[in-house]
């Protein structure tokens, strides 16, 4: 494992030589290892060894680098593991260097730890920094009766994603989870204005509330949040119980509901009996129910259910879909009245800072994920730039699983294509990852791509966002006849629903997300681009770029299709919009900029650190993402064609000289082709912000 002249990041360790669990009556567990973790090779040894030791002990003592340092790993406000790095008591080459740490551990009552470092000053040892008294409230001292079962520990750390890291190892939830920003709506029964809860405060905000309702869009990370809250609560000494709404029983009789709790206790805790759990202090117990809106509890039973939950648990956390909020839990509903006292939160899409945090976690999984000589900061910036370009279309939701798929693809696909701005393979990766969740292996992914593309084209042809059961069955049969396939209708729809791409509500079929519709419509057009009817559709889409679904479909098509018709039609559309405008004269037409602020001023660099300036800039951008309507990506809200009213409004905007600029890559002279000072009505940033071609900073100037 260790050799002479070794270098950091190269050592290996026989992980199977360490017992993965032990049954001990000890109050404190201590692990001692010579080399610090950064000397072990990643991902083969460093991370697995660190995780294994931290799962077994309260204190980890290391040496070798002769740099005395004491740190701690936190779970919320609770200490999980204390790390102590030893100094050199007798250093051969530098005998004047001598230091040591003193640890003080108090075992009475709640165990505490404190420490201080002593350094040789020539004639005496001088006491340096002191590590103040802290309680050791880690999960490793939890009463053995409250320890989790091995299978459930694996479940709560399962990310349930069909992706692996650069070493081919499945990604765990603890590897990739980062708390999202939240909207805090206050008491659910009130009609309060929401306020933002930043990600760094999200965990503490949730865990300090007694009764919580959390909503999130489809695939926004609700289940991952539920698992992480369970783990963090258990780490802090609480006794949480995690259930899924589908597994709850009706409240027609309370014993049936208690049975659900008993089964959960038995499967989640290794040695805790259900009877003992029920008799424990309610203040220590926490109930977490994921997908609560799928439970069989009727609305008229909700008041009794909530009362029973509150009597049995000191803290109740319920997670529901955004649909449930709109349909059942709005401020005026009976359900909201029954849940008075619950604090409502909503999960936000990931903003720039959250994407950066996720990229940082991903890059930390493997030291091989960046080029030699490239710093971690430089690599994070590079990855985030690729993601930013990929996600520029507002059709793609910034959900964690999509971002992780894209992060993985940045390293396993052609980097030359990514650097040249070709992101079609990344869009394909997102869809393929969704289809990889399928449990039906008899139908290949290519067939599913084609099936969904025909569904998207049928929606476009019928000018409607959904198909009823009769229409969908007719499309299914036509597809099977066209390709000479025998696909069971019910099994096919159920499979695509389970992958998260389709939605089936009482036989009404729709895409779950708008980006899926836009992608598969583009996929169909690309596959049939030689047909005149399809080319006519492409011309129609390029002529209505003011319409979100049309514009996003064209964006996907531009990445997927190599036929020149796409670019030629986009140029033709730009010519219609800008053909009557004269190129900008950089001397005369930009004089209005000089009039914005007649006072001269001197630019000064802020005195704050560069990292803080960068965070402040990204924070300002994230505010706009938090403002997004959570249901904006719902596939049931697709408009396949712009309404006549929208067309008339767009024509009016074009007459005012504020039409969309279809050639964003041209020079500034072309960009300033709008005669803003001659507009008949004031140009507002709200109107300009409809078009993704304009930079945010320019919008603020205008």
Commentary on this structure:
- This protein has 702 residues and is of the alpha/beta class.
- It folds into five domains: 15-141, Purple Acid Phosphatase, chain A, domain 2, CATH 3.60.21.10; 145-347, P-loop containing nucleotide triphosphate hydrolases (Rossmann fold, 3-Layer(aba) Sandwich); 352-434; 444-578; 591-626 and 643-701, no CATH class.
- Helices cover 41% and strands 14% of the residues.
- The protein has 28 helices and 16 strands.
- Strand 8 (182-187) and strand 9 (195-197) form a beta hairpin.
- The termini are far apart.
Helix content: 40-55%
What percentage of the residues does DSSP assign to strands (E)? 5-15%
| Number of DSSP strand runs | 16
CATH superfamily of the largest domain: P-loop containing nucleotide triphosphate hydrolases
Number of helices: 28
Radius of gyration: 29 Å
Q: What is the annotated CATH architecture of the largest domain?
A: 3-Layer(aba) Sandwich
Pfam family, one: nSTAND_NTPase4
Region (Disordered): 632-655
Protein name: STAND NTPase 4 small alpha/beta domain-containing protein
Domain STAND NTPase 4 small alpha/beta: 466-521
């Amino acid at each position: 494992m260790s050799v002479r002249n070794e270098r950091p990041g190269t050592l290996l360790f026989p992980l199977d030589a360490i017992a993965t669990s032990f049954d001990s009556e000890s109050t404190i567990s201590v692990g001692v290892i010579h080399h610090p973790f950064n000397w072990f090779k990643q991902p083969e040894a460093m991370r697995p060894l660190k995780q294994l030791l931290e799962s077994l002990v309260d204190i980890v003592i290391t040496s070798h680098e002769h740099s005395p340092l004491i740190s701690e790993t936190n779970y919320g406000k609770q200490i999980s593991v204390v790390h102590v790095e030893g100094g050199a008591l007798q250093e051969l080459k530098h005998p004047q260097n001598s230091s040591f740490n003193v640890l003080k551990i108090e075992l009475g009552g709640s165990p505490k730890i404190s420490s201080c470092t002593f350094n040789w000053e020539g004639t005496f040892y001088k006491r340096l920094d002191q590590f103040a008294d802290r309680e050791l409230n880690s999960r490793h001292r939890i009463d053995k009766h409250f320890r989790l079962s091995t299978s459930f520990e694996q479940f709560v750390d399962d990310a349930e994603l069909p992706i692996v890291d650069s070493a081919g190892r499945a990604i765990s939830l603890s590897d990739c989870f980062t708390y999202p920003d939240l909207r805090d709506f206050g008491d659910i029964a009130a009609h309060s204005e929401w306020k933002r809860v930043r990600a760094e405060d999200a965990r503490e905000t949730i865990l300090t509330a007694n009764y919580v309702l959390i909503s999130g869009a489809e695939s926004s990370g609700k289940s991952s949040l539920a698992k992480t809250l369970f783990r963090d609560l258990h780490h802090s000494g609480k006794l949480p119980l995690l259930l899924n709404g589908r597994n709850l029983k009706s409240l027609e009789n309370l014993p049936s509901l208690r049975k659900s709790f008993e089964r959960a206790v038995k499967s989640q805790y290794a040695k805790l009996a259900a009877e003992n759990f029920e008799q424990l202090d309610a203040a220590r117990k926490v109930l977490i129910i994921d997908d609560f809106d799928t439970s069989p509890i009727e609305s008229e039973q909700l008041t009794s259910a909530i009362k029973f939950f509150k009597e049995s648990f000191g803290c109740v956390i319920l997670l529901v879909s955004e649909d449930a909020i709109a349909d059942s839990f709005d401020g005026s509903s009976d359900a909201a009245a029954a849940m008075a006292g619950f604090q409502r939160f909503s999960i936000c899409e990931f903003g720039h800072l959250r994407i950066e945090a996720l990229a940082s976690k991903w890059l930390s999984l493997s030291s091989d994920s960046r080029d030699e000589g490239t710093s971690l900061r430089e690599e994070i910036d590079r990855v985030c730039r690729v993601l930013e370009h990929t996600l520029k279309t507002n059709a793609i939701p910034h959900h964690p699983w999509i971002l992780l798929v894209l992060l993985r693809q940045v390293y396993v696909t052609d980097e030359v294509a990514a650097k040249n701005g070709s992101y079609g393979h990344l869009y394909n990766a997102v869809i393929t990852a969704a289809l990889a969740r399928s449990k039906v292996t008899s139908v290949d992914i290519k067939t599913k791509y084609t099936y969904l593309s025909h569904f998207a084209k049928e929606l476009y042809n019928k000018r409607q966002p959904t198909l009823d059961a009769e229409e969908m069955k007719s499309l299914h049969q036509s597809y099977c006849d066209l390709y000479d396939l025998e696909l069971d209708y019910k099994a096919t729809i159920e499979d695509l629903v389970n992958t998260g791409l389709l939605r089936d509500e009482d036989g009404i079929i729709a895409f779950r997300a708008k980006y899926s519709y836009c992608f598969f419509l583009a996929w169909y057009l690309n596959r049939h681009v030689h047909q005149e009817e399809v080319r006519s559709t492409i011309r129609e889409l390029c002529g209505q770029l003011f319409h979100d679904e049309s514009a996003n479909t064209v964006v996907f098509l531009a990445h997927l299709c190599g036929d020149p018709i796409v670019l030629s039609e986009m140029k033709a559309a730009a010519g219609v919009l800008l053909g009557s405008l004269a190129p900008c004269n950089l001397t005369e037409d930009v004089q209005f900029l000089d009039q914005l602020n007649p006072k001269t001023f001197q630019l000064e660099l802020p005195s704050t650190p560069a990292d803080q300036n960068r965070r402040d800039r990204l924070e300002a951008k994230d505010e706009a993402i938090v403002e997004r309507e959570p249901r904006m990506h719902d596939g049931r809200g697709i408009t396949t064609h712009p309404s006549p009213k929208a067309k008339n409004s767009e024509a009016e905007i074009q007459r005012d000289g504020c039409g969309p600029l279809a050639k964003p890559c041209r020079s500034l002279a072309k960009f300033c082709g709008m005669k803003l000072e001659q507009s008949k009505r004031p140009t507002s940033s709200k109107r300009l912000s409809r078009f993704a071609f304009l930079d945010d900073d320019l919008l603020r100037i205008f």
